[in-house]
Amino acid sequence: MSTPMLSYTNLNTPVHRLTGVTKLVFFMVWALTAMIIYDTRCLLVMLVLGLVIFGMARVPFQQYSFVLYLILVFFLLNQVAIFLFSPLYGVELYGSQHDIVHIAGRYTLTWEQLFYQFNVALKYAVVIPIALLFLLVTDPSEFASSLNRIGVSYKIAYSVAIALRYIPDVQQDFQNIAFSAQARGIDISRKEKIGKRLKNVISILMPLILTSVERIEKISTAMELRGFGRKNKRTWYKSRPFQTGDYVALTLVILVAVVSFAVTFADGSRFYNIFE
Amino acid sequence: MAKTNGLSVKTIVAIGIGSALFIILGRFGSIPTGIPNTNIETTYALLALFALLYGPVAGLLIGLIGHTLKDAIFYGQPWFSWVIASAVVGLLIGLMTRRIAIHDGEFGKGGILRFNIAQILANIIAWIVVAPVLDILIYSEPANKVFTQGIVAAISNIITVAILGTLLAIAYSKTRTKRGSLSREA
Predict the structure, then answer these.
(1) Is residue B183 domain-resident?
(2) Is B184 a domain residue?
C-alpha cells in the first residue's frame, strides 16, 4: 500500500529559491483570482503564465504524474455531471441559444453550454500548475513559518506543522493496524460485503483513534514541559529574508490579479460573453 | 497546567494530529457503497469525535487544515467550497456538544442523543446549505447538480457519524475514569 503522494524535493531553480512566504502568497492570490473571475481571456493568459512558471521549476514528471490522472478523472466526471444535470445552463448564463445538435428529450448540445463548460475546465486548469508547484517546491518546515509571517497565529501554524510531520506516522499506524486486522481475517477491501466491511472498519478505526488520543496527550505534555505557548511570538529556524526574486514574483502575481479583476469587471459581469 | 494565551497546548496538538488522521482516513478510509462517486467517508466520524472531544475550535481547524491538505497532497488542488463545509461541520458539532462531559467518562443515552442531534443538524447545514451555495458562488456550477451532490453527501455522512462516530465515542468514554468512581473505605 505505498500510495504516492506529493512531496517536497529540493532543487536549485529560481522557483525553489523563493521564500516560503512568497510561495504561499503567490498561491493564495492566484487561486483566489482564478476562483472569482470567469473571463476566458484572463484565464487563458493565466494558464500560459502558470505553465511557464511550472516549467521553470524543472520538477521531474514522475513526481506528480499520478495526480494528473486523478485530476483528469475528476475533471471528466464533473463535466459529465454538469451536462447531465443542467444541459442548458450555458444558455441561461449567456442569454442566447445556438443549437449544435439535439440529442434526446431535454438534452440539446448548444454552443453556449460548450463555452460555459470550457470555462469551467479552464478555471480548474489555471490553478493546477500553481497548486502542484506550491506543494512540490515548499519545504514543510518553512511552510509553518510562512503561515505565521502572513499573520496566522503561531499556534495554528504549529498545528499545521504537526499535521504535516505526523502524516507519515499516522499512515504507518494505519497500515500496521490494517495488516494485523487482515491477518486475523478482518477485511475492508471490496471483497467483503458492505455491511460486514463497515463492521470491520470499526475494528481498525478504534485502535487507530485511541492510540492517536494517547499520542496527543504525550506530545502536548512534552510541549508543555518545554514551555510552548508562553509567549505571544516566536522565531523560526527556517525563515529567510526576502530577495530580488521574491519581489519579482509578488509583483507579478499582484499585477495578474489586478489586471484580471479590471478586465473581468469592466463590463460589470463575471462572465465573458462571446455571443453578444 | 501552564497558562497559555488563547488555545491550550492540547488543543493545538489535537488539531495537528486530528488533521493528520483526517488526511489518512480521507484517503484510505473511504468505503465505496456501489453508487458511483458516493463513498462512506469514515473520516467524518473522526471529525465528529474530535469536535466532541476537543471542542469547536479544534473541529473547525481540523476540518479546514485536514481537508485542505488532503485535497492538496492527494488530488493536487483543494476544493474550497467543500473544505469550508468540512470546517463548518467540525465547528457546529463542537459548539453543540460542549456540555457533554465525555472526558469524565459520561456518555450515556442522553449524551448519545445530543451528539447525534448535533451531528445531524451540522451535516445538514454544511452539506445542503454551505457547500452547494459556495459551489454556486465560487465555481458557478448548476444549482440542481450541487444540491443533489450535497444531499447525497449529507445523508451518507449522517449515517456514517451516527454509526461509527457514536461507537467510537462510546469506546473512548469507556477508557476514561468516571468522576466520583472512587469511594472512601470505611
Answers:
(1) no
(2) no
Unique residue bearing C-alpha cell 488543543? B11
Over residues A173-190, the pLDDT tens digits come to 998 998 898 899 887 777
Q: Is residue B180 part of a domain?
A: no
Q: Give the structural domain span for B15.
A: 6-174
Q: Which residues of B touch A202 (CB under 8 A)?
A: 164, 167-168
We report the CATH number of the domain holding residue B66 as 1.10.1760.20
Q: What's this model's pTM, rounded to 2 decimal places?
A: 0.84
CB neighbourhood size of A231 (10 A): 10
Is residue B19 one of the residues assigned to a domain?
yes
Distance in Å, alpha carbon of B143 to nearest chain A alpha carbon: 8
- Here the ipTM equals 0.85
CA distance, residue B185 to nearest chain A CA (Å)? 31
Q: Do B76 and A71 touch (CB under 8 A)?
A: yes
Question: Into how many domains does chain B fold?
Answer: 1
Contact B144, A84 (CB under 8 A): no
